[in-house]
Amino acid sequence: MKNLFNLLLKTLSAMCFTMFCLSAHAEVDADGAKDFAKQNNCFRCHGVDKDKDGPAFTKSAAKFKADPKGEEKLLHHLTSGEKAKFPDGHEEDHMILKSDDQSKIKNLVDWILSL
Ligand code: HEC
Questions:
Q1: Is-contact 110 25, C-beta < 8 A?
Q2: Alpha carbon 82 to chain centroid, angstroms
Q3: What pLDDT is attached to residue 65?
Q4: CA distance 44 to 96
Q5: Tens digits of residue pLDDT in 44-98
Q6: Cα(97)–Cα(66) distance, integer angstroms
Q7: Going by fewer Cβ within 10 Å, which terminus of the chain is more open, N or C?
Q8: Per-residue pLDDT for 21 more than 90?
């Protein structure tokens, strides 16, 4: 009986977690994300749906949306300065996005994933 109760509790908390994730995604502030990307010159190298030196954000969305770790990977990409390959073949460290407000970075990543 106790096991059954535990199982129920686990199921319920998993459901809450899923609902929390879904609602977190619904709350993307697209205008805020675009402003933040503009301030940081992201659009110099990325179009929303057009490749520039870097891939279009819609392409990155398609690549990472299906990945359960997509958000984590993009957060890492934007904050760690991973090597980025440019169309002419040279590589340089990707710009590191900095903000006192981590939620702005997360909102930008969630916006990209929502495209
Ligand atoms: C100087 C040009 C430049 C700037 C500025 C720049 N990027 Fe990039 N970015 C690139 C290039 C080039 C790649 C391709 C990396 C690769 O495929 O190796 C890339 C890759 C990416 C990717 C895909 C990562 C992946 O693993 O597929 C995302 C998402 C991204 N950039 C977001 C941003 C955001 C958000 C900003 C603004 C904070 C930004 N970039 C600023 C050049 C730039």
A1: yes
A2: 15
A3: 94
A4: 14
A5: 999 999 999 999 999 999 999 999 999 999 999 999 999 999 999 999 999 999 9
A6: 24
A7: N
A8: no
CA distance 104 to 19: 22
| Residue entry with tokens 């129920």 | 8
Contacts of the segment 22-25: beta carbons below 8 A, 24+ positions apart: 24/110, 25/110, 25/113, 25/114
Cα 82 to averaged position of ligand 1 atoms, centre (Å): 9
Instruction: Give percent of the chain with pLDDT exceeding 70.
Output: 77
Average per-residue pLDDT in the chain? 88
The tokens of 96 are what? 């590191």
Residue nearest to atom 17 of ligand 1 (CA): 85
Q: For residue 29, how far is its CA from the centre of ligand 1 (angstroms)?
A: 20
Q: What is the largest CA-CA distance in the chain?
A: 65
User: Which pair of tokens denotes residue 98?
Assistant: 């900095």
**pLDDT computed for residue 27 by the predictor:** 84
